[in-house]
Amino acid sequence: MVIILGTLNFSKMDRHLFQVLVVLTLSGLAFGSCKSQQMESNNGTLAGNLGLLEGNCMPGPGRPPCEPAPISGTIYITKPSERYQADLLIRKVDVSEDGLFSVKLEPGKYSVFVQDGDQITCTITNCPDQCYCLLVEIVDTKVTNQDVTINHATW
What we know:
alpha+beta
């Protein structure tokens, strides 16, 4: 921050008052910066893999289990919801080509959605009590692992 005073004529009292105001302003800026960093440091992390299941995944003798192939894409994190609503969006996360994603979030519960073609979809959980799209809980400074799979397989 640069303060240009030029040739102002301050009385001794005005100069002292000005100095106090400058110190208070700079202290406020420093405190605000620390507060913001402190709040960010209490955030937890949601991390996982985005994968795609395709083809015939019908289990059978000698047939290995289907594994999702890592893909890039977009993950949408909203307040808890049973369907995607743009007004509940908290964060939108781009997923790398290797399928990995990681995002810092404030502690709390969230629903996780994924872009599948031109639709934003999810896996419904917690039914029949109260249905939510993939519900995750983020805890202070902890990593919550949650893989997300788009299922185009036949069973």
